[in-house]
Amino acid sequence: MAIGKIKPNIDRLEKTRDVEGLISALKFNDCNIRKEAAAALKKIGDSRALFPLIDVLEYKEWHEYYAVMGSVRETAAEALGVLRDRRAVEPLIKALNDKDEEVRWKAAWALGNIGDMRAVDPLIYLLHDKSWAVRRFAASALGKIGDGRAVDSLIEALSDDEWHVRKYAADALGKIGDERAIESLMDALNDEDNDVRWKAVVALGKMKNVAVEPLIDLLKNEDWHIRGRAAEALGRIGDKRAVKPLISILVGWTKDRNKYVRGRAAEALGKIGDEEALKPLTQALDDPYIYVRVKVEEALKEMENATQILTYDDGEISFDYPGSWEVISTANKKKIVKGNSANGNITFSINKNTNVGDLTSKEVADTIRDVFIIQNSTILSETEFRAEGIDVHTIIGENVNDIAPTKIMVISFKIDDLLYYLWFSGGHESFERAKEDIDLIIDNFRVYI
Description:
single chain, alpha+beta, 3-stranded antiparallel β-sheet, 22 helices, flat, PBS_lyase_HEAT, Armadillo, ARM-type_fold, HEAT repeat domain-containing protein, oxidoreductase activity
């Protein structure tokens, strides 16, 4: 162990972004200081810390006598995941064998965030780890990487004893999009856990064409739960081949005997938006059950609004948005616009800050990321791209302090001395359902310069 003489002030080093000072603190004789230094470097995200963090990540025999060193290693793994430098891949793969399970699962998370194919086989092996948390993050990481080699093992993970693992295995299979998973995902529609069932629906919805016919066949399944979830998945896919089968279970002598299934069929028809469904939906307004009638009314309203795309334009900014969303212009100079989705499950705002000075677009994004971390929000992904000569940064996080976790997405960019950022917040399921609406707002957002 290296011996430090003067205890470093980690808060001050972090506030002044003294990366070299924090790197030095990684070798201080107090292991708690090392942990705090690693956490500060994670927040700052400076590439100069890459090799010092790799060194800290490696297990050494003397760590056995200092329990806090496990926390130091796990924080280093997280920090390396934030840096997303491929030179950290091999050390992180080695860390998948760490004796501390939190180090293993944070190394798995980091490898998923980096997205290097070298991690695929080690992560597949990790799906058999004794810790369900490790297995869960291994499944999630494999989904982020998106390599087809993981499909068979992820299918096997759909039968894991822990619902967390099954949930993220289904999510990963949806991201990979391999049709080999369709049958197993359809079986997962009957999982005992609601989160797993929903992820299976979302995953099948991402598979588009290859999943349509098998899901249509499931509309005849003897289990009404499965019939309802199949209808829901077909609505997410939006393929018009499903219109007639869905109509047949909504009205007429072939209609499904279960009100829940009929309601899901109505909901799906509303999402698909085919005019052929208008007359059957109108007929279904006479359904004897209020649940079905409410779903029919919502479907008809959605179809009416689907063709209505409105434009907000105040001379400074403009964007398109669905007619079903509420958009309000404010007198607040910083929060230009606020609004919400039709059902209120997604809230959003468009904001402007004139006090960013000489900060670069990347430094502004780093500041937003720091706010996420200070608020104990988990960062799920970070991306950046260039559009029309402007650097655009997107951060997606999750507020884990809420009873029901809230997903947050912030898209930021700087024009001259002005910072603009679009902020969206809502439940995970609501985000999935409103993806096209959110994309409409983002893709058509313009600032008049």
